[in-house]
């Protein structure tokens, strides 16, 4: 056997290999439909169908569904001339309700109109109409296969093929109701009780919460500026001690490789290839949870060195050139069918669409479909009809890519705005020096100190004097390092590594026999909350969990993190948030 | 302790009792959110929220969602003057596409218009706006609680209180994505592996398929014309032999008490009370799957004795009088909080709405909500927004009741039409005599024989002569009984008990050491399919299952059933179906 690892090597990509030994007992116990053998009768034209329990669509009270949808180029690809003001922010309606000066006009949105009748002219009345048939509410709102409506399925298949380019031939796509459902189904399809899954050392808590009740725990793999580290993955797998760990070596990996949650890291092609090859070697299934794929923002460039212009790529470039600039998916390297990829419309259309899809081998797709039949069934018909109509009739493939580019540019502006604010309010110095366990990240690292404070005018001097904290300088003439930061390269979040080692009440780990009732991280989070800023405490994302599912304080109780989101709300809100952060950090470290 | 069993007995209904010992290990292992203790900060006005990963609603491409919705009195409550013709059938678009004479105009639907903007004037921008706030897509399409949007929750609570009248005070409602999801969550919340659940001896196969992979099997309870029999329930529970059964006595019941699937039976108040009291005695949790509640059709009256007029109740009666005529829900007797009721919009709005709700105690509601957070999350926002807008702004409570009455009348016409067709094509005689194991039903039973056949004109005689099968008369001058039937009193299905004992190749059970490769039921189903009629084979609904989840042939392989749906399609289609049934039954029994 000489497996090929990319479609370039051979003309014909290989088929998925048999990985059925990865199925859980629960998944194996799912029955085939007893009607499978009689499928031929269901597809025979002219059959009188009195078998199913379908309501007549005449009784659906929705005669026609329509929507005003934003045009595909609603968001510009170049940097805006100035930071958006409240008057130009699309969220000002919310702001206005809280403010007294609500004279600000709502922004105008450029829209087109889509309409989906119950019985559109030319609709094909077959239970599974061909993908080119007009979308009919009579069908989309009916009971249907867990595979969703054909018009949407066909688009997702085309999109996946063009954008993610799976490296084997018989891959399939299958709709789900969002990546939380997708992962929840995947873990139940793959994992038996008392098993471990591999995960980034900080990861999405809801993913752990989906696995934990089935007694499936995470084994942490160290991360750096590209997300999961391949060297540590090998070391975890090679050095797995079944007895010490209390379970078998993991055969399933959960990873968020783009816009890693919470760190915002993006895993490049080389790292992905390394990790994939290790997973082949150790026979690990990769579940790639990739909701932020199109929110790739690239490296952060400080404001003074940033050139204005195309943030979301060259305006003139075509879809292929744009897609080539994005980090590839794991499935581009997947010549065996050992990746279950999860895509979601939550970040590209809306979370409430509750719509996404798997890309995986026929074996896994079939088992995941069986599971869907006995839980969610197909996704919501309103959502499928609207999204399919928008994607296939209004935007098309090219239009959707344009929309995604616009979104990516918007998130890039937002990322830049928040990291710029940190630069404005802290003394941020780039460094690649890893100074302690708290900074175990590869790539460029910024360290942040308090800035010299401007005094109110009229207090004399040159208008600046050293702040209290600035006065406590070390031998190099610099203040304490308050936190370090690798600016995110994708996604929605900034992840700060707070330098609690520099805190007056820091206790070295070795001497801390009794873990403190409240960690410094928790105290700091509460201080921020009391001052009016809510962030996500780093401990929430810890892959290591206690028996009750709560995050383990671990051995490093003095190290702490926080996650701040730049995805939502006014720029003014972010600014207020960073001002609170600055104030509370100063005060906290002066304790 | 002197529990009260109805709200009439005492002024104040009691609170739910502690039934936490029923929670499964998986359910108990679901963690509380680690943020629970800090909830106060999330609700504090003016907080700067950078914690969550919410996309800005400015990026939702739907600026406005609207629909033409049928008016609440779209369907008449009285019998139509004549059977609907193809020209007046709302589904004729489908028929037309297959027929060459597509001159038939599509029926006109009376509609109103609803519209849900992203940012409606007067919307409250809080993450959980008060129920009276206009529905905003900016909120409905956002990530939200697994409890759904407040406007919908408030309506469901009001509706449940008025219609189902729970007998304890602290009941809650919680949205789910349809009863398949609801039951799937309930079984995982209540059952550990190797357990049994109580179920009607014929039941919904998908419910069994949701439980089976977790090694949860059904213990069959006998049914009659009112569904599950209370005497047999007691006998199953009292006589439970742990060793012989291979598992503990069941502590969970799955039941479809109205429009029982597949039999169409409706369980009345007296039976429900008996069953509830037995469940209190044996500490059983009742999961009441009730999607057909508003398709209550009442007793079938043969056409010649049927008075035309109000099928769906008196036109003039008010909501309360209408509701009082319906069989009550189990929760009307539930003074302890041991019922988990499942309601669905699949039959009252559309299956594609993927929307329904639990009514249960706070203990179960909390665990079911946790499970939703790590699987489906909240239901689809498009669906929630549309259904809530329709129910709260367009129809209102009274309007929705009127819509439901119209639907009930439509299903009654359809039920009557199909049972009338059986009368036209078979010699149907009412009898209460239970003649064999196949007819173990209470209530009125019809037995069906072949009718004397009309000869083509010109073949002499009086135009009628005895059919071949008619000639094989028994001593009483009557032909073989082909099937028996209790006409359904609710729901979508007619359930025929085929009298295979009368079949030439019938073998008595005791002599059938080797079960036949193909049962008579299967042979008969195939004969119908070959002749162009698809029905659901009775064996699919058998509660007893083999280890692989397939229906057990059981000890009674000669007895068979079939389920025919009258919910869907043209009356002409039903007629063609019954003609095929008649022909194949004749031929099959002449073998």
TrEMBL record, chains A, B:
This is PLP-dependent transferase. Its cofactor is pyridoxal 5'-phosphate. One of its GO terms (molecular function) is pyridoxal phosphate binding. Residues 1-21 are annotated as: Disordered. Keywords: Aminotransferase, Pyridoxal phosphate, Transferase. It comes from Rickenella mellea. The lineage of its organism: Eukaryota, Fungi, Dikarya, Basidiomycota, Agaricomycotina. The keyword Transferase applies. One of its GO terms (biological process) is alpha-amino acid metabolic process. It comes from the Eukaryota. Residues 170-428 form the Aminotransferase class I/classII large domain. Residues 1-12 have a biased composition (Basic and acidic residues). Belongs to the class-I pyridoxal-phosphate-dependent aminotransferase family. InterPro entries: Aminotransferase_I/II_large (IPR004839), Class-I_PLP-dep_aminotransf (IPR050859), PyrdxlP-dep_Trfase (IPR015424), PyrdxlP-dep_Trfase_major (IPR015421). The keyword Transferase applies.
